[in-house]
Structure prediction request, 219 residues.
Amino acid sequence: MNKKTVVVLSGGMDSTTLLYALLEKKHKVKAISFDYGQKHKKELKMAKKTCEELGVDHQIVKLNAFKGLLKSALTDKKQDIPEGHYEDEVMKQTVVPNRNMIMLSIAMGYAISIGYRNVAYAAHAGDHAIYPDCRPAFVEAIGRLAEVVDYEPITILTPYLDITKTEVLKKGIDLDVDYSHTWSCYKGKKKACGKCGTCVERLEAFRENNLKDPIEYEV
Prediction:
């Protein structure tokens, strides 16, 4: 298997765990992150910090058009970030339309340009309820597309697609992932709110692994 891989790195728990896992498996990795006008830009700082510590080449791509064109609670200053569990209907407000399709398309173009043959992203089973572009049907479809976008096929790697965040964290513990250098909260404040969907799921994962989350929370 070709082990030259571009990983889409948000700066959150899941993609950071994936980065560590790829390095542990001796992949030659380059990371790409996206500034799409999200309120929680702190995640990009965490992605940069992690890559600096691990010696991974890291690009941050600005997608300024996202903010005006693709409506979401994550990008609209007039819209509050909903609170609750990801399975709650209100969490659909956090969907950024077609986000992963756009990001993965850019990541594939980047991979082709530098002679890499894999693109990895950390969709997991906990995302399926709310995010269509994290579901198996989407992954299967973009995987077929990736096979024909270049003279040689690109492979989309989604090793966490069928496991929960709790299980992702368990894998990260074994990899000694530094979760103090990750960020999940959608509200973009100095401390994590502990109430938005991604905070709730993150705290649940640490609790189910009998661990304390190393980042600070407001509650």
